[in-house]
Amino acid sequence: MNQISVLDESRGDVVISTDSILPQFKVYTLKDIDRIVQLQALPESVLFEMKVVSSILPFRVNQYVIENLIDWSNVPDDPLYQLTFPQKDMLPPHVYQQMAQLMQQNAPRAEIQSLASALRRELNPQPSGQLEMNVPVASDGKRLNGLQHKYRETVLFFPTQGQTCHTYCTFCFRWAQFVGDEELRMASTDTSELHKYLLEQPGVTDLLVTGGDPMVMKTRHLAALLKPLTEPAFDHIRTIRIGTKALTFWPQRFVSDSDSAELLELLSQLVKAGKHVAVMAHFNHWREIDSPMAGRAIALLRQTGVEIRSQGPVLAHINDSPDVWAKSWAMQVKAGVIPYYMFVERDTGARQYFEIPLARAVTIYREAVKQLSGLGRTARGPVMSASPGKVEVQGVTEINGEKVFVLRFLQSRNPDWSYRPFFAQYCEKATWLDQLKPAFGEQEFFFEREYNAMQSRR
């Protein structure tokens, strides 16, 4: 058995088998679809549908996912296949038909790209006011593209080197980051702008490095971004969060990549410097973490003192089952991961394929947590990450004879809105906040007038 050692002896050497470690990262995109061996058993019509969809929505998958996560005997129903490979119905019918017709005519590449760019605008590429309302302005009046500051305590940073992923999720609400349209993309090459902004914001306690996936970055780039935060001037930055799917889509990043040891050492140094470091892991199905390699990655990360929290949306075709969520959360707790959020599919991209009614999402959440001990009930949900804030659907009840949704903000543009219950008329079909109406004859929700004023000032 081939073996390698990870971490040094001072922290307890970890010896693992490398028999199942892929020698290198290998990725496939739209231009490579015909080279994916496992797809060659599918009908030509299905391959054509994939090409149509991935000419508008981004497609990228790596060899680890293909070989270790997908059950090819259960295609197309396999949830991990649905999570990573484009399906015809992920596009609205009229969008699909326009692109399919053009591709059937063998139109020039430039013409296809032009149509794709136009059709993407119909898919709400940057939802929830991300470009209009979330981008901060520096003290010198400069708009800081690549940063978002929606909630008082938390700043998001989009490093340019991290604006891709090891594999793209088909449901991703950040799909517009990956299609090559600079008008839609959020990214910054200048970490000094971030550091300067944080110095100007003493009320900010949390930095969230996001993407894409920051864990595609080389460790030296992450170190240049994060190590300066250990200086006394940044003592107000108490928590560093890193959003990533790498734990399940390329766990080798923490185990066997050329700079894995340096990455673990960097995270350990941040913890020793007094920072609370949280890896915000994106999990969508329990099978993702049922991999020996993912288990090793989680164990190694935890040895650095990092906390791992999990989040992901409830999705048709992938995880719209209480048993799937209950099993996933139970496995996470066993591995030392803290369940954090069950989100609702956002109003962008392939939403019509993945979204489920809020009423059903509430049932899935309740039926899942009922199967768990208290340690598995830390996940909050279902939660809509909408433009006014993160809205939790707490449940359905009846008040004075009216059936209603009980809602509250977990985070909000105005912190005073948070944790204040409000009510919406019950609706079997509603999938998002803008489809809900106030209960009890009210004309608007309590926050709407102030929120509309915020919009008008932008």
Q: Calculate the terminal CA-CA distance, rounded to whole Å.
A: 61 Å
Number of strands: 15
Largest sheet: 11 strands, mixed
Q: How does the overall form come out from the CA principal axes? A: globular
Helix-strand topology string: EEEHEHHHHEEHEHEHHHEHEHEHHEEEEH
Structural class: alpha/beta
Mean pLDDT: 93
Strand content: 15-25%
Poorly predicted residue ranges:
1-19
User: What share of residues is helical?
Assistant: 25-40%
Name the strands of the widest sheet in spatial order.
5-6-7-8-9-10-11-12-13-14-15
Radius of gyration: 22 Å
Instruction: Give the count of helical stretches.
Output: 15
Description:
- The structure is a single chain.
- The termini are far apart.
- The protein is an alpha/beta fold and 458 residues long.
- Strand 10 (307-314), helix 12 and strand 11 (338-344) form a beta-alpha-beta unit.
- Mean pLDDT is 93; it is low at 1-19.
- The protein has helices spanning 44-54, 63-68, 79-84, 93-104, 109-120, 191-199, 219-226, 246-249, 252-255, 260-272, 292-303, 322-335, 351-354, 358-369, 448-456, and strands spanning 3-6, 14-17, 27-29, 60-62, 147-151, 154-157, 206-209, 239-244, 276-282, 307-314, 338-344, 380-385, 389-399, 402-412, 422-425.
- Among the domains are: 24-123, no CATH class; 386-458, no CATH class.
- It is 30% helix and 19% strand.
- The strands form 3 sheets. An 11-stranded mixed β-sheet has the order 5-6-7-8-9-10-11-12-13-14-15. Strands 1-2 form a two-stranded antiparallel ribbon.
- The chain is globular.
- The chain has 15 helices and 15 strands.
